[in-house]
Amino acid sequence: MRLSQYFLPTLKENPAEAEIVSHRLMLRAGMIRQSSAGIYSWLPMGLRVLRNIEQIVREEQNAIGCQEILMPTIQPADLWRESGRYDDYGPEMLRIKDRHERDMLYGPTNEEQITEIFAASARSYRDLPKLMYHIQWKFRDEVRPRFGVMRGREFMMKDAYSFDLDAESARLSYNKMFVSYLRTYERMGLTAIPMAADTGPIGGDMSHEFLILADTGESEIACHKDFLDRNLSDTDIDFESDLQPIVDSYTSQYAATDEKREADVEAALGDDLVTARGIEVGHIFYFGTKYSKPLGARVTDADGQEVHVEMGSYGIGVSRLAGAIIEASHDDDGIIWPDNIAPFKAGLINLKTSDAACNAACDGAYNDLREKGEEILYDDREARTGAKFADMDLIGVPWQLIIGPRGLKSGVVEMKHRASGERQELSLESALTQILV
Fold first, then answer.
1. Considering the entire predicted model, what is its pTM?
2. Do residues 121 and 151 lie in contact, with contact meaning Cβ atoms separated by under 8 Å?
3. Quick one: which of 36, 11, 35, 39 has its CA closest to 25?
4. Which of 35, 62, 139, 140 is placed for a possible disulfide with 106 were both Cys, Cβ 3.0 to 4.6 Å?
5. What is the C-alpha separation between 169 and 301, in angstroms, rounded?
């Protein structure tokens, strides 16, 4: 994409309303624009990041046999009355009426909707287990939306739901999601630490939240230092095998958010204890028959007896992750995107658009990369060199390919790695090969 044709309204100054790093940088990098309090439009650069996050989440859900569906944003209030949550949920739920005066709501979550879908079709234990998910916009009318996409009113979530015959089978589904979440965050360049959590308005008996470390995190956490060096993303995991040992290896070591910390345990850990700030990026729940009973989700078991299915729900904040990743990965110059999340793999900077040789080299490199399937951002604007460097650092693409007339005369171009700041001079051919790896 040529930057001269791209809609990228960057800002030089920090917006006054932005209190945290991710909000400031998402606004400055032209990723989002506020529509109303806690509600944002996603501009081209931001949408590319959002789609990359969404795709990693989708691939990891598919890998464990979770089937994608799409449920509506607007739900009938009667479903929530059946579960007992319509009045319990509070003012965060946006309640509306349609033209026929029927009570409706903008869904903050989808337990009722998915249970009704399942209950209408499943009849036998042979229909189990089932894992289903969707990636959809949600709305919660936060009393004080703030911090940009980190605590907005409208947000994109991945919600998954499990249906099993009994508690033992439900635990297998829970473990699949637990391990899947670890792999999902690792693919995004994040270290996510699972911590036992309260179930809140979702309900249930077992719950874990996943937090990533960031200096500007919303919660203070403490954990064993071994969590910082763990890695599952390169491990070939059979999700149909017993995953309990993997889950146990994570849950057996100390990790606690501020309200669950234990002073005596932390004292005993000594130098093995790490304290930091954390941002929640996912939450999983097992809640048994909390929804299947009131909504009539029953199947017959092998003995012909009707039983209510055991359920769990599993959420990942897709749009929230865009902000959380920035909170965990930035510097004074701007965003530092992990490779898998970056809107473009590289930025091509033409240092002198008035130079014919420079234009020819840049255009050739741009076309060559596009023909090989690599999308890059080509800064072909007639702008100051300093402004081009500043914008490319701000948006945080992993590599910068810098081509100028002086280097071309010597047969070299410059490559800059955004994360490390390392610069190297090499031939244009070698630079293109490096980008394509």
1. 0.94
2. no
3. 11
4. 139
5. 13
